[in-house]
Design brief:
Layout lengths: L6 E5 L4 H12 L3 E6 L2 H15 L3 E5 L5 H15 L4 E4 L14 H29 L3 E6 L12 H21 L4 E8 L5 H8 L5 H7 L9 H11 L10 E4 L10
Parallel strand pairs: 1-2, 1-4, 2-3, 4-5, 5-6, 6-7
Helix pairs in contact: 1-2, 1-8, 3-4, 4-5
């Protein structure tokens, strides 16, 4: 098992990509602290992990925008497991609205959760990794909109572009501490957020699939494998980079 004896903290771990990553990391031998605002989702995922993998799973509720919540969940994980080897920042929201109609509240919420929340967890867990002196792995989830524009996604693009650049900066700063910081760029993944956009008419899956060279929408499990690679010792010389997992969308020249 590639992550045996390691501890992972996964934000957004109650569902979607975050839950898939947490499950896969537990399957690879890691104990997991799952973070989300909704305890019922966390409890369900934690139960599944413990029953199906035999690893320990700790649910911890937090609003990633609140520094005190971030500090408390990190303390909770350290009290339970004694260390954090892996951080996955997956908590996020998406906003789809024309820029001229976008409210400041929408803009601020998107930046607060996607960018500020990622920074706060990177900072808090990074401090622990530096003080512990045994290195670590940090994985931030970005988006194809960090690389190419989609109309109506200004706030989301700004937040995810910020995460991409934050990832590179932290990789440069913390390389001397043997902390590898990377990001994963998912393409069109069928998550709960995506399903809502389909219901609202924002996305039409059949039209998207016609533009995806792989010929299908992504599944949350498609992101879990790359996350395990970046969390494992196989990626010890990989840092400051973005692993694009999009079925070829960006290579196709437009999204």
């Amino acid at each position: 098992m590639r992550l045996q004896h390691r501890v992972a903290l996964v934000t957004g771990g109650g569902r979607g990509i975050g839950a898939a990553i947490a499950r896969r990391m537990a399957d690879e031998g890691a104990d997991v602290c799952l973070v989300s605002r909704t305890f019922s989702e966390l409890e369900e995922q934690a139960r599944w992990i413990e029953e199906n993998t035999g690893r320990r799973a700790l649910p911890a509720t937090a609003d990633v925008r609140r520094p005190e919540d971030v500090r408390q969940t990190v303390r909770t994980a350290l009290e339970a497991f004694g260390k954090i080897d892996i951080l996955v920042n997956c908590a996020g929201i998406s906003v789809a609205d024309a820029s001229e109609e976008l409210s400041f509240e929408q803009w601020k919420e998107c930046l607060d959760i996607n960018l500020d929340g990622t920074f706060l967890y990177c900072q808090e867990v990074g401090r622990h990794m530096i003080e512990r002196g045994q290195g670590g792995k940090i994985i931030n989830i970005t988006s194809v909109v960090a690389h190419a524009a989609i109309p109506g996604r200004a706030a989301y693009a700004a937040s995810k572009g910020g995460v991409k650049q934050l990832t590179q900066n932290l990789a440069v700063e913390w390389g001397k501490h043997n902390i590898q910081v990377n990001s994963i760029t998912p393409g069109y993944i069928y998550t709960e957020i995506f399903r809502r956009f389909v219901e609202q008419g924002v996305h039409q899956p059949e039209k998207l699939e016609a533009r995806i060279p792989a010929g299908r929408m992504g599944r949350v499990e498609d992101i879990a494998g790359p996350a395990v690679f970046l969390a494992s010792s196989d990626s010890d010389y990989v840092t400051g980079t973005t692993l694009i997992v999009d079925g070829g969308v960006l290579a196709n020249g437009y999204i």
